[in-house]
Amino acid sequence: MSDYQATNAASSGVVVDKKHIKQLSRRSDKPGLIWLAQWLGFLLATSYLIHSSQNTVWLIPAMFLHGIFLTVPAYSLSHECAHGTAFKNRTINEVLFWISSFIYFEEPYHRRYAHTRHHTYTWINGKDAQMPFETPMDFKGWLLEVSGLGLFFYELKVFFENATGRFSDITREHTPESELPKLQRGAIIFLSAYATLIALAIAGYKWPLLYLIIPRILGGPVMLLFTLIQHVEMQENQVNILNSTRSFTTNWLARFLYMNMNNHVEHHLYPMVPFHQLPQLNESIKDQLYEPDPGFFRTNLEVLSVVIRRSLGKSTKAATIRQDPSMINS
Q: Within 13 Å and on the Cβ side, how many CA atoms surround 69?
């Protein structure tokens, strides 16, 4: 696998004028701060719903709605901050990186280095540090992924490995030796903070359960449905992003929650382009790309149909979404 070249626009045959990419890649605080204010507004609204629905049958739906607005944007912001593109101001970027990563459930230094590796070797077995599920995916694998159990147990294992200094081979491979102590300190800080939240809940404080822990659990599957369709059913072990990665169409709310990462092919081709410029990047290169898949719900439903049929030994050919031929058994 050492012979694999980096996965990017050059390896995928996509060409854009360098001046135009430089212009699109300019960082700015304003779009991120506007997005952040909107996110906080949504969280205040959904938090009020939880507060006003206590002791009623509407409490669980309120926590679920709050969980979606808490968890999906937390993942998206953590991802954008990992790239350093959410804000021009580095301090703002790093503070929000830690907060959003805490909600997402991954230590920030590990997240940044593992994600860099993911971009360098996208969907290449043994090289990509963020291939979270077995492929081809079956229904059991889908349940493990979408329920959040796969992510929870994997990240919990990484937390304890890093906190105790017993770094895995893949962690050592994608992290500079000088940065490993930072991973250890970050893991200890996060585990201590999570333990404090649990202790508060056990001691009788309701707010950690009502506004953080239960909503994070309830909203997690929605977040994971977004991340699942980034690469599932796509081609492995090659360097062309167009074949390993999926973009999809969606509505304005999903684009907000996901920080335009529905343009996922575009993001992998040019990861230095900030979230607010991804629609413009798409306009610049769409004639070099495949058509995006048809919507968040439709794409996920079709993936679910495929994995169920695979588990039953039936044809796995998808009806409309893009799918690598190696994933099809007629």
A: 23
Q: For residue range 306-327, list pLDDT tens digits in order.
A: 999 999 999 999 999 999 999 9
pLDDT at residue 2 greater than cutoff 90: no
139 and 308 in contact (C-beta within 8 Å)? Answer: yes
Strand, helix or coil at 145?
A: helix
d(Cα 126, Cα 122) in Å, to the nearest integer?
11
DSSP string, 14-63: ----HHHHHHHT---HHHHHHHHHHHHHHHHHHHHHHHHHTTSTTHHHHH
User: How many angstroms separate the Cα of 10 from the Cα of each of 6, 187, 246, 302?
Assistant: 9, 35, 18, 31
For the stretch 218-251, pLDDT in tens is 999 999 999 999 999 999 999 999 999 999 999 9
Residue holding tokens 């969980």? 67
Judging by beta carbons within 10 Å of its beta carbon (0-12, 13-18, 19+), is residue 185 exposed, middle or buried? middle
Cβ–Cβ under 8 Å, residues 102 and 193:
yes
254: its two tokens = 């999903």
- Quick one: pLDDT at residue 1? 41
Alpha-helical runs (H) found in the chain: 9-12, 18-24, 29-53, 59-83, 90-104, 108-120, 139-146, 149-163, 169-174, 180-202, 207, 214-228, 241-244, 252-257, 264-269, 278-285, 296-311
- Which pLDDT score is estimated for 5? 86
Structure-token pair, residue 20: 């135009």
Q: Which two tokens stand for residue 140?
A: 């059991």
Instruction: Give 315's contacts (C-beta < 8 A, 6+ positions apart).
Output: 309, 328, 329, 330
Taking CA 113 as the corner, what is the angle to CA 116 and CA 281, rounded to the nearest 5 degrees? Answer: 30
